[in-house]
Amino acid sequence: MTVATAVAHPNIALVKYWGKRDADLNLPATGSLSMTLDVFPTRTTVALDPALDGDAFTLDGRAATGIPLDRVTRFLDVVRALAGVETRARVTSAGTVPEAAGLASSAAGFAALAGAASAAYGLDLDERALTRLARRGSGSASRSVIPGFAVWHAGDTDEESFAESVDAPALAMVIAIVDAGEKPVSSRAAMRRTVLTSPFYPAWVTSTDESLRSALAACRDGDVDRLGRIAETNALRMHALIQSCDPPIRYLAPTSLAVLDRVEALRARGVGAYATADAGPNVVVVCRPADAAEVRDALADLAEIVVAHPGPGLRIEPGAVA
Ligand code: PMV
Question: Which residue of 62, 92, 97, 168 sits 20 to 30 Å from the alpha carbon of 288, by its own alpha carbon?
Fold first, then answer.
């Protein structure tokens, strides 16, 4: 097959990935836990073209150059090496999530690219191998291969660092889109700066290992409130860590903090609502599905709100065009 299309959705981590132990292989310092969403799909087509000297990448209708094109080419180089094929490809991708706004656009993007590229280049990969391949493009993309809840095992080697499904209690995620603009520092650059300059980084690694163990236990017990508390603590620790870089990086905006205040107020009146935020100002509120409408209404004057539930994993559609 020389043309394939794949669809993937973003995921939001309840226990975050922040920091690599190997930047080439994208091996993380810790494991992480996430929910793949049922909103904001990305659809990507990869078509091999022997007439091309270099890969071509069209993102949301525009020809990409510079860093985005380099990242796609470096990713396709990994696929080509596995397939033993040198042919270049035309990549067409259309997303529905605001790019680079801390809403995991790279997770959906690289999961879809891993699916489409592996099929187009004739690799027959099982789910675990697809999570490892997606990881090479963007660490968090490994988790978007998996439907619903996923744990990404840190692992010490390429083979050991994969994502798989995990059972969890029913959750909704209420997304407050505080600012859909591009973030000032990419998560890749910010992670590097964190590892190199934050005095708190070793404590982050130990405490996140511990948070992941407790979060998985809360999942097994079906305990939404314990899971939510762990997720909020872990997210605020990640933002504190990022702010402790030199020079510092701050992703949360005044409106993000206003959302955090509302979440505390919701808890004060007995609603099990817990906040998390990726590398950007948008805040995601974790709650029981039955409480999602109340949480949405409590935040509606602060930001644009999207309610998400557990979504599907990576879907590969042989041959179709984006
Ligand atoms: O996969 P990357 O390089 O886009 O990094 C993702 C980092 C966070 O979204 C902040 C955390 C996570 O686990 O998704």
Answer: 97
Ligand 1 site, residue 17, Cβ cutoff 6 A: yes
Ligand 1 proximity of 13 Cβ (cutoff 6 Å): yes
* Residue with token string 């602060």: 302
Tens digits of per-residue pLDDT, 244-263?
999 999 999 999 999 999 99
Cβ contacts of 316 within 8 Å, gap of 6 or more? 4, 5, 6, 115, 116, 118, 119
pTM: 0.96
Residue 107, domain extent:
3-168
pLDDT (tens digit per residue) in 127-140: 999 999 999 999 99
> What gap in Å lies between CA 274 and CA 40, rounded to an integer?
22
Is 112 domain-assigned? yes
Question: Which among 18, 97, 149, 241 is the best mutation to test ligand 1's pocket, defined by most ligand atoms within 8 Å of the CB?
Answer: 18
Q: Find out whether the beta carbon of 188 lies less than 6 Å from any atom of ligand 1.
A: yes
Instruction: Evaluate whether residue 316 is within a structural domain.
Output: no
